[in-house]
Amino acid sequence: MKKAAKGTTADAPAPTHKGGAFSLKSAKSRFGKNRLDPLFLLCRNFLKQAAAISMLGSVFFLSSCGGPPKPTTAPEVIEADPLTIEQLETDLRSGIPQQKAQAILELADRGERKYIPIARKFLKEERDSAVKSSAAIALGVYKDAISLSPILDLLQKGSEVEVSTVLEAVARMESPGAASRILFLLNDEDDTIRMLTVDTLIRIHAQSVGSKVLSAAKENKDPRKSKDYVVAIGKLRIKDGEDYLLGLASLSDPGPTLAAIYLALGRIGSKKGTPLLAKAVSGDFDKGRENAVIALVEAKDANAIPLMFPLLSYSDREIRYRAADVLIGIPSTLTGPKLLSILNSESLESKGPAAHVLGLIKYLPARTSIEAALLNSLVPDREIIAQALGHLGDKRSLAILYRVIKENSGEAKYGAAWALGGIGSEEALPVLEQALNSNDRKLARISAESLGMIASPKSLSMLDQKTHEFPELAPSTLSAISSVPGVESRRILEKYAESEDINLHQFAVTQLGARKERESLEVLIKLLDDEKGPRNRKLITAALRSITGKRFFSKNEWMNWYKNRN
User: Which residue stretches belong to region Disordered (predicted)?
Assistant: First the structure.
């Protein structure tokens, strides 16, 4: 068996493999010099997925950040027409190994199960490593249980198929029975192989070997391998690993292993780990803070709640909102009253995170106090405080939000614009439409999104006008139009789908696909057949699949289906 390149770390992206099925050079298909074949794309995707497990990223929203901005334009994508089934069948008989490899993987990806016998034959008889590798992955995609043992046999010495390929095939098979045959790879010297092994155990739901994983972790003396065992214990939810994790945490310096330990403690629902995790929320280790929040919320230990209240007035703003995330994530009847008293205290710094939590838990007795905090210009984070009123959803806050949205300076007006959409009352339409006309593009964008949340047909004309006048607002305006049910909104989207502006075209086609209305088929088929204007066939066919449930990929398949659909 071939191994991945050595010298990588569990925190680095997995390297592009050389040779076999993963060669970038061989991945350039005959459909165009800049297009990658499906085999390389699939293999590249799974390597990215595997690398991602070591990143230990947080999914928590810090109120101090709104996330990355939405793109105002989308790149034009020119896609060659996908091969038909008949063309792929021809490629299966090709004397060119790369074409055979591409074809069997593409057929598997399309769910064409009648080609399973051919994939089995390729796995057993083909000498070319690219074909054998793609056949293994294809059989994994098919979940062909009969092929599991032959695929695992490729881990033996002398196999020309890389270990990473075998693990991906096994992972796609999703058979827990494979766990015992890949466990030995947790002790591999190659960082990437260990990481992929952990990922595979998780994807095949290998909880049955939990005790063996824990035993191996306790026997391990190599610090480089500790993190992989920790991730496995956490994601397989091996509850008996609690004492091992806490012991390892006491020996670990801030770094990837300690960050992984925090996540693992949360995944196994550790209660003993609550004091450690709560302390980490206010610690100096950035990744540790992030993961400790995730862990506390996942463990849902009510004992963590009182430990978070003092952090709401912490000098570090990030820590204040990390603590708020914990309070949001652990439901308790104690939280609302305690936070209301904090909101009414003299501490200015704590008002933002306190209001944020109170809004998200919809603690209605806090409304007037949140409004008072919003009107105090000395209070930081007024944008977040305004958003809290939107989360509460009480129409009695409209008047105050109308005042704030008209402020000339500061960020509070953005929160007010969002809150008006969050409350969802048509009474706010005139104010939001006025804000949509603002020269402040951020305010206009948020106002468009809020109009979408209200989803009133009364706003369609203005949203249409603003899309035409300011195409850069299209991600927000077209999304808002799409949220309004009915014929008028659909026709507006269809109009922009036919636009010569590639960005408007792409955004509108995407929204038509999301609406799943068969009345849009005629327009989409017309666009698919349009050879003159700038058209994104990949998005058009995706929209057609979303609406019809059909799994056609090429233009000809769609045109034939539409012609003969009756």
Answer: 1-21
